[in-house]
Amino acid sequence: MNIAILITDISRTGGTERAVVTLANMLCKKYNIVKIVSLTKTTNKKSYYKIDRRVEVDFLNNEPLHIGLLSKIKWSVKTVFLLRNYFRNNNIDIIISTGHNNNWLIPFVRNKRELKIIACEHIVYSSIPKISRFFMSLTYPYLDKIVVLSQKAKESFIKYSKVSIIPNAISFKPEFLSQLTKKKILMVGRLSSEKGLERLIPIATKLKEKFSDWLIVIVGEGPERELLERLIKESGLEDFIILEGMQQNIETYYVDSSIYIMTSHFEAFPMVLLEAQSFGLPIVVYNCPEGPGQIVRNNESGFLIENNNADEFIDKISMLIENQNLRQDFGKKAKMNTDIFSEKEIVKKWILLFEEIIN
């Protein structure tokens, strides 16, 4: 079986890119040909994440998608022609597409009846623009399957086509767990508006008053960095919130921290929470739509905080800081909670899905 995984730009850094690489690395151990097909033209024709040498990567050199209806239509037409030409010249049995901008186009690419098409949705449904939902309503019924990350997501997409739930697999296999003794609180991810970084500032201000010997370390880059730097400076938190930028050795940050926090406004299925749990970190996170509640077991492996309740967020972090035994107990249960998201378990779900749609 020959499989192609379609993504907008594999050279970017983010949850979707990491999930695609992890999926390709899993499937290439089972199937003869696994390709990552990256649409967008880029000067950096390689992935930030390590790709198995058995996985082929092809760039189609399309222009980036710009804002505006006319630009989107032109981009979509060009993308269909590029993909039809690509799949005409490559023998593919299953296309796995990621992202609604790509997914609604895939039915136009089918060049043979036997070609199976799967669309993966990795973002919260409510964040998809209405115009995109309209296009999705026209073409998603012609998909063989939609794959989502959670039950809540399935409830949103089931009106379009048949839906399967397959969570992302953990990409890390930690050699060491955190000892939960360092006075560091960790955040990892793209510095973008949906991450709710502005909600961190009042939390950090109160924590600094109570625990000035602790630090909040943020690993990641993005368009909100300048705003975040300004908010940190205005609040006098330069010595309490440390911005580390992008880091290749992210594992060392997990091992070197004692608590993981997330202040996002919405998350589909945040991989960083799985990664943090795999290193034995207790978690404090806003219970935003849709993903955190699918991963964190409240009062067992961490705390799910009522959205926007900063006082509760501060109280739960304080509780973990002041009680190392509680950190250890939560961390142990967090590690156990990751077993169901192992590569071994997730690849089984993909194999069963392939068998279902082919047979």
UniProtKB/TrEMBL annotation:
MF (Gene Ontology): glycosyltransferase activity
Membrane-spanning ranges: none
Domain Glycosyl transferase family, residue spans: 175-335
Residue ranges annotated for the Glycosyltransferase subfamily 4-like N-terminal domain, each copy included: 14-170
InterPro entries listed in its UniProt record: Glyco_trans_1, Glyco_trans_4-like_N
A Pfam family that the UniProt record links to this protein: Glyco_transf_4
Signal sequence residues: none
Protein's UniProt name: Glycosyl transferase family 1 domain-containing protein
Organism for this UniProt entry: Flavobacterium hercynium
Taxonomic lineage: Bacteria, Pseudomonadati, Bacteroidota, Flavobacteriia, Flavobacteriales
